[in-house]
C-alpha cells in the first residue's frame, strides 16, 4: 500500500502537497529526487521520478497522455515513444509490469491510473515549526516566446533565492524542495507542504527584443499578496535587469515583510506573542519616531529579549530604540543612553556577527559617540553582508556627508532610494541629499530636497531644522521661518546644540554654514563653532520687468501650467504649442515649480552635462521658453549668474498640493478633496522622464512621490466617506485608486462590494 508523508503532519494527501511518498518498502523522496527500496537507492532516470511523482500526487485519477507529456517535458519535445519507455521503466522499478498492472493501470483510450490508494503514514511525526519568518522561492512561470532563452524561469528565481539566503533573520527553503512546485499553485498548499509563511513567485515574458519579469511576495497563510512589482527592459540588458530584480525583491522583503509580520502580530492577544512577533511590533513602533512610540518599541524589544535571550535582532532592536532616546533627546541622561545603545548593539553582534541589522545598529551607536570612522567600518560590513540593505547604505551615505564626502553621500542616498522607495527612513535619505547640496554650495537643490524630506511621513525635528537651514541658505526666508516654526512646535526646547549632538558634522565648512544659519534663525550659537562672516556668496536680486515711462502695460493673457500628468501649458485660447525639445520643457517645468532663482551653472549640470557648450544649450532653451510665455503673465528674468521664472500670476497645479501632508485630507470637506483629485491626470511630469539627467530625474521622482501620496490619501478618504451613503460615487474613486494599486486584493474586494451596492441602489 502507498503512504504519503507530509513534512507538516497528516491529512488527506489528495488535497495537499507532500514531499515524500511511501509504498511498501519503497520511499519516493521528491525533495532530494531519490527512490529508495529497503533503505537502498534505486537507480531511475529523472523522467521516471517525475512520472512517479505525478502518479502519487493524483492517486486514483486517470492521467491522460497529453498531460503526462506536458508535465514530463515542458519544452514540448517529449514523444509518445519516450513516454512509453518511462512508464515501462517505472513499472520495472516498482516490481510491476504491463501484464499484471498491479500498481500502474492502463485505462484504454484515456490514459493511466495509480491503482493503490494514497494515505498518511501513521508512524511519521510532523516536521518541527520554525521560529521567525520563512520563505520559499518558486520557479517563475514562462509566458510569450518560451523557446527563446530557455531556463530563465529558474535562473532568475535562483539568484533571488541566493540573495535572500544572506538575510540572516529569514529562513529560506532550499532550491531542491521549492523548485518542485511548477505552474499555478495555491499558495496555502505550498505553505503547508514546505512549512513556510511566505513565497516568491513570478512570470517571465519574452516578446521580440523585450523582456518583462514580474515578481510577487505572497502570504502563504492567506494567499494574499504582500508586495508585487514588474521589471521591463531589452533582452540585451538582461544582466542589468536581473540585478535590478534581485535588488528589488530583496529590498522589498527586507522592509515590507517585517511590517506585514507586525500587522499579523497586532491581531493576536499580547500574552500569545512570541519573541519574533514582539520584535516586529517593536520595529513597527520604533519607525513612528515619537517619544510615545519609541517607549512602546523599547518595551516590545525588552520583552522579546526576556523570552529569547539569544535573539540577536531583539538586542539590536533595543539598541535602535535606545539610540533614538539619545538622538531625539527623549531622555535626560543622553550619555547613559548612548552607552546603553552601544552595549546592546555589541550584544547583538556577539550573538550573530553576520546579521546586517546588528552591524547597522553598532555603526549607528558609534555615530552618536562622534566616532564617524568607526561607524563607517560597521556600516560597510552591514552592506557587505547584504549588498541591498537600503538603510545601511543610507546611513553610510549620511556619515560620508557629515565627513565632507558629499559626492559619496549623494550617490549612496540615490542608491538607497532606488532600493527602497517607500522606506521608513525615506525622509533621512532625502535629508542626506539636502546636506550634500549645502556642502557643495547648491543651496536651491538643497532646499528642494530638504522640503521634500520634511514633508515625508515620519520626519522629525532634526529634518525640520535641515529644511530651515537649506531654505535660509537659498535666500527663501519665508520657508526658512516656516520650517523653523514647525521645529519649535514639534520640540519647543530645540537648539543648535541638539542638532549637532544628533548630527556631529565633522566637515568644517559644512558645519560653519549650518551653525550660522541656525543662529540667524534663533536657535542659538554652538560652543565649538564661530559664526563665519559670510557663509556663502549672496544671490543677486532679480530685476523686475518695468514698462517704459508714460505707457500702460499691455494686458497679459491668463496662463495655466499643468504638471500633474503630461506637461501642458494652457492659455485663454486653449493649449499652447510647445517645442519638441524635452529638455526645454523640463527646464520650463523646473523653473515654474520651484519658483525661485536658479544658478545657471546648476541648470547646465542638471540638464546638459554632455554637450560641448552647455551654456549655449541653456540660452537656446531660454529663447524657446520666452516664446511660450510671451503673451502670458510670467516673466523670465535672466541675470548674469541666475535664471528666475516669476510665475506669481500663473496657475501652476502643483502649488495646490505642494506641502500638503496626506493626513491633512481627513480634515477637508468632500468638495475640496474631489477638487484635489480632479487635478491629477497622471504622475508628476510623467512624460518628462530624462534618463540621461539623473539630478533632474531624482528631483522629478521626489516630487512625484510627494504628490502621489496626497492623491492616494485623497482617494482612500473619498472611498471611505461615500461607501455607505453614495456607493456609485465611492466606486468611481475606488476604480481610480485601483489603477494606482492593482495588486491590492483587499481594494479589489472593496471595488466588487461597491459595484454590488451601486447596482442595488
UniProtKB/TrEMBL annotation:
One GO BP: phosphorelay signal transduction system
Molecular function GO labels: DNA binding
Positions of the UniProt region annotated as Disordered: 528-554
SUPFAM superfamilies, alphabetized: C-terminal effector domain of the bipartite response regulators, TPR-like
InterPro entries the UniProt entry points to: AfsR-DnrI-RedD_regulator, OmpR/PhoB-type_DNA-bd, Sig_transdc_resp-reg_C-effctor, TPR-like_helical_dom_sf, TPR_rpt, WH-like_DNA-bd_sf
Matching Pfam families: TPR_8, Trans_reg_C
DNA bind region: 18-116
Keyword Transport attached: no
Residue span(s) of domain OmpR/PhoB-type: 18-116
UniProt KW keywords: DNA-binding
UniProt name for this protein: OmpR/PhoB-type domain-containing protein
Species whose genome carries this gene: Acuticoccus sediminis
